[in-house]
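CHAIN AND CONFORMATION:

***
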Amino acid sequence: MVPVDAEQIVMLREVLSTTGWLERTEEFGRALRVTSRTPGGLLLVGTPAGDPWHLAAHLDDESRLADVPGLAPTLVRWKPPADAPAHLRVGLERLEAARRGETLFVVAEEDAPVPLLERVDDARRVGATVLALDGGDKDLRGLAHEALTVPPDEALISFDGAQHLVSAAAGQEPARGPRGIRHRIAKLLDAVSGPVVD
């Protein structure tokens, strides 16, 4: 990950404040928070090309900091090593066991493969809520109850950046006045970059 300096943070805030990205990620994060109420019931899965490790870590942090146990994800992996710790050995069979009251969160920058789409469809049919953060996959978006698309040609925000915004929004209690997600992101960016020195 490339370090972010104070000037980049100021630019990011200014650019995103007029694009609608903060509002879209806040809405999606709120949907994630509302549907993820059961500890262990947030199933986070990527594609064979990549597990969403980074997002899993951020959601786990948000769960702990916001005291929202349902946000702690179960990372579902395509090929978990047999010798991995238990929480890193969860395979695709967990999607087959999805049930009503659980949330399946699919993170797919590239198109989701057919076996994943089939499992997502099955989970939806048994009553699991499906959320998707995608790069333009219409089939995946069609299966999702809520979706946030980051087009590959989006110049203002990267797919990774959207994951950061979504996890921060999910950890945020619904705003009661002016201290919503923008304030939280500003605080988070200040914490990451350190104080600005004149």
